[in-house]
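Protein entry
_____________
===
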Amino acid sequence: MNPVADAVRQLVEGHDFSSPRGLLRSIKAETAVRVLDGAPYSIATNVAHALIWQDVWLCRLRGEKLPKVVMGKDFPVISAQEWPGIRQAFCDGLDEALVIASRDPFTHGAKDDEAAIRTLFKIVNHGAYHIGQISLLKRLSK
């Protein structure tokens, strides 16, 4: 297996930490949208932020035009009704990244393999960082 596919797989499957799907599945909407005392944002906002950037990077990997992201506006407040869709979209995007990373031959819409690999590692690093934050917020919310 190639190293980038292995890194994405470790994130998706939850090697050394909870899998995103497993971690997020058990978080009820009321818990996801609550901002804990001292926390800058809710679990749902954290996931939405991670999703915004993940979508940008997936567009690059698909060869699509990149959506415009306004810095400072990439931590949107999410309602309880939006939570299931945000959670699903984030996990589905990670699955898509794994499919792209695992292709043999390695095909993608990025300008070259090096750019695709860098982009996949951005998805892994950013996703793992936020999964850690979400895990902590979840523990603090009990």
Remarks:
- The mean pLDDT is 95.
- Helices lie at 3-13, 20-25, 29-33, 43-62, 83-102, 113-140.
- Residues 36 and 140 are 8 Å apart (CA to CA).
- Residues 3-140 form a domain with the Four Helix Bundle (Hemerythrin (Met), subunit A) fold (CATH 1.20.120).
